[in-house]
Amino acid sequence: MDHRPFGSVLSEAVSQFASLMRLDLRLLEAEMRAKTTTIVSSGACGVAAAMFFVLAAFALVQFLILAMIHFEVGAMFACLIAGPVLIGAGMLSLHLARRALIGWTITPVETVNQVRTDLAALKQGIRYGSTQQ
């Protein structure tokens, strides 16, 4: 049994809690920095890829429309065929992009779990009157 005054025990608990929170904030900062770096680099590559895909898609659509016209399909009908095909490809791409992000979160999971563990340990220490160093 700890025979120290309650104020001393409380002061030590608050001090340890503050120390844990500082450590948890550092963990949060490091985890968010890593996630932000990944998001920024991925986003930049994604934008560049999207620009190239748009240019390639434009050239390919022009080729397909001109090929249909060459095989004596009317120009209006050729464009009417190309439109729904592009809409279908866009819908498929959105579906695949959404499926790829399932389960991914920007929440700092490690930090949240660490804070929960720290708070549980602090409650345990206060409940049983011992704060260990």
The rounded Rg comes to: 30 Å
Q: Strand pairing plus helix content: what structural class?
A: mainly alpha
- Rounded to the nearest angstrom, the distance between the terminal CA atoms is 16 Å
Main beta sheet strand tally, sense and closure: none
Report the mean per-residue pLDDT as an integer: 82
Unreliable runs, pLDDT <50, ≥5 residues? Answer: none
Strand percentage lies at: under 5%
Number of H/I helices:
3
Helicity level, as a percent range?
over 70%
Plain-language structure description:
The chain has 133 residues and is mainly α. It is built from three helices and no strands. α1 packs antiparallel against α3. The protein is rod-shaped, with a radius of gyration of 30 Å. It starts with 5 loop residues before the first helix and ends in a 6-residue tail after the last helix.
